[in-house]
Every structure is written in structure tokens, then in C-alpha cells.
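#help-structures

NK: newbie question. if I give both the sequence and a SMILES, will the prediction place the ligand too? trying with zinc ion
OV: yes, paste both and it writes out the complex. here, I ran yours:
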Amino acid sequence: MNQSKKDIFISYASADKFEALKIAQKLEQRNITYFLASKSLQAGSHFQEEIRENLIQCEELFLLLTPNGLKSEWVHLECGAAWALGKHISPILFKCQPDDLPTIVTGLQAVHIEDLDRTIDDFEERQRNKKRNPTLLATQQSIDLTSEGRYYIGIDIGKATINYCLFDYESFSGNIYSHDEEGALYSNSIKTPASFDEIYSKIKKIIEEIAFKARERKIFSIHGIGIGLPGMVDPKEGMLVHTPSFNLRKLRFKAILEKIINWRGDPIKNLIPDGGKNIPIEIDNDVRCATRWRWLRHSPEAQSLVCIFIGNGLGSGIVVNGKMLYGKHFFAGEAGHTTISSQTDFFKSPLEKCHCERKGHHWEMHVCSYGIIHLMKTLDTERFAQLEEKYVHRHSKKSLTYPLAEAFYDGDPYAGEIVDKFFEHVAIGVANYVYILNPQEIVLGGGMIRAFHSRDKASPFFKRTTHDLLLEKIREYITPSFDRDYLTIDFTPKQYLSSLGAALIFKDNSYFEYKHQ
Ligand SMILES: [Zn+2]
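OV: that's the protein plus ligand as C-alpha cells.
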């Protein structure tokens, strides 16, 4: 008996042997092992037992559907068995249409045999994900059953704007469909209303809008809604534990939203995949969502990564050992409130206390926009007014961040003094991360970073990028014997990545692992 475990079980009707061999050949070219009855079975072996054994042991099932296959008892049986075993099934069509699929596989992503490479790409990607989280096989299978449709909605609720997108897991793996460069099929944003009651009804409207756009693209099922929220978020209870942005505590966000979204008779109802009563909703902290996007989209192989977002506040997302770090009470990565000095005058900052009202000089006081603006005003009121007058009108936003960056790269000495401190303090915090986590990559993002990143290429004064200037500062804090050259600093220039990362919750095994702990 052939006991060696195969990657793919190819299910086909014997009349389609030629097409099945074509699939086998493709798999062979890509070093993927397979089980194909006519080739693998030796005369005299126990035919049925062999098939059963291979079905149990295989990673996934490729189902060749043709007019012959649809009539074949074996194909139906193998498909049913694979389904019951929780195996991922990929229907491959030849001379038939998605409409012809047997009930058990309707809603699965079917491809024509000509596009077989896509199916194999997807298989390889799932294998990579499994390798990253080997302990999670059981959970992953149950997630896979509900994620066949591959269309997800991501919504990021920020203090000022709500960003949202329709995300296509297919284009995430780098092919088909027209989409924007980051993989969203459709994305948009609106101003955030003042109260959460209004936010709920806006979310309902957003989903209707996306449902409409989805249908324009002939997408008829959406398999999940991921939502990013500012503050402490408990994915287990679906609760917004605490959010300073909205001054709220203990909001049962998920339960309330479920009641509102899963109403009857509206467009969204028709998008619920076969057999499901509700669209699954998952919530997570917005910084973790942005981190997840950066991780799964651009460094899916990274075992450790830190994303630090510096804007009006400072938050970070941490990936260690291939998993997002949440911590006991969901605030792992709240590095903005780590103390960088106990003395109030250590950095000659005019701010006496962090807004969290605890002792010490907290990191975010020295790098976030409110701290920097405070510093600018106190250091030199006159120069501050001059800079404001000279630069602010050139920028659409009222924020002083972009004007400061522009003045800095123009070589303005006052801006230079401020920015030097800013870079220094960013470097201190980043270096602390390097020592504590020794991460593979550190990614900097957020409004403050974007402002400098957007100006530096045009600078005739420095001829060096923000990246270079920052890296140099960071390295001053790290001992050379720690092989400083490994340090990768990257920028995330996009603003709407939290909504993409929210849609990606359903692709992040570590989220579900944490949730079911
Ligand atoms: Zn603080």
C-alpha cells in the first residue's frame, strides 16, 4: 500500500484521464506531490482502500469537473468525503460552467483548467500559511470552510474618517481582477460622525454601498466583515474595552453591530453565502489591522516585525514567532506611554505631563504631533509664527506637520532644530524595540512619518532621505556588535491600510488562535 502522504488528491472521471494528466504534469513541474488513481495505483492493490487512505492523508483536493465528472459516482463520492474531512476543495472546470457545480461545492472559487496556475498559487499560499502556524490546522480548516468566497469587507473607524474597502483574497495573492495597487477591489472613505449611534447606521450604509459595488462586479457573496477600531479591543468578547478617541468604555460593539447588520430583506442579505444566517463580523485594534496588512501583504514570511505609527498618538503592532502579539489585556505594543526619562526637564520639553497623566516623559510626548507643536511654540514663538505664515497656506490640511517637514527640507534652521529632536526621539524608541525584540523588520508609519517621507525626495538641501537620516540616528543607539546592518526600516505611505488589514483578519490565523485561546 502506498503510505506516503501526497499534497494533492486529484479527483476525476476516468474518461477525463488526459485532462487529469495535464493537471498532474503541472503539479510535478512545481514539485507538488499528487495522487492520481490511474498512475499511482498498482494492479492488484485494494483500489477502494487506497483511495480512502489517500483522501485522508492528502492536504487538499483538486476536483476536475467536466460533463463526465459530473456524472461520475466516484467524483461525487471523493468530493463528499473530502468535504466531510474538512479538506480544501478546488474545483477545476473543463467544458462546464460554475453554474454546473454540485451543491456541495457551490460558492467555492472554481477556475477553468486554463487558469490552473492560479489554483496552484493559492494552494502554495495556503501551505505557507499553515507552515507559519502549524498548531492551528484544526481552526484553519474550520475557517477555510467559511472563506471560500474570498470577498471580505474591511472598515477602519478612525477619529476623523471611516475608511472602507471591498477586499478580494484572490488579488491579494497577486492576480486577476482590476484593483488598486494594494489589492482592494473598491475603497472609499467618509467623515466619522460624532456619536457611536450614528456610526452604526453609517456602517449599515457603507455595507449597502459595498454590496452595490460588489454586485456591479458580479460578486454575489461576501464572507466576512472585519472592523478596525481605535483603542483597546477585545476580540474574544467582541468588545471595545476603552477608546480615548471617542471617550468610551466597555462597548459591546460586535453584538450591537450584528443586530444592526444582519437585518432582513436588505441588499446585504442576498450576499450571505449559502446556508449562512449571518455574515461573520470580527473586530480588532486599528494599529494591529495596519500591522497585519503590512505583514501579510508585504512580508508574509516574516516571523517578527514591528510597525510603529506616529501621528496624533503613537501605537505599534508586534508580530513575534509568526503571530500577532495581543498581551493579556490587549494592549501589547502601546509603546507611546513607555517612559524615556523620569526627569521632567531631561529633554527640555515644555510638556510637563503626558495626556495619560502618569509620571515621567513618555515616548509619544516627544514624537507625536501635539508634542512637537508644543515644542515649536515654546522654543521660539516668533519663529513659530513665521513658519506658520510661510508654509501653512501651501498645504490643504491645517496640520503643522507637513509645513514643518517642508521647512526642514528647505534648510530652515529653526525647523532643523525641532526635527533634529524629533528624529532623535524616534530613534531612541526604535532602538529600544531593537534591543527588546530583535525584530526582522521595523516599519514606521503614521502622519508624522508620512509628512517627512513625502518631502524628502525633493530636498535640495539634504540630498538624503528621511530613511537615511533616521537610520543613522537609530544606529547611534545600537552597539555595532549587534550587527546593526540587519536593521530594515520601511515606511508605509498609505492611509487606508487599516481597512485592508481589517478585511485581512479572516486570513490571519493568529487572530483566531488568540480568540479561541
Ligand atoms: Zn502617557
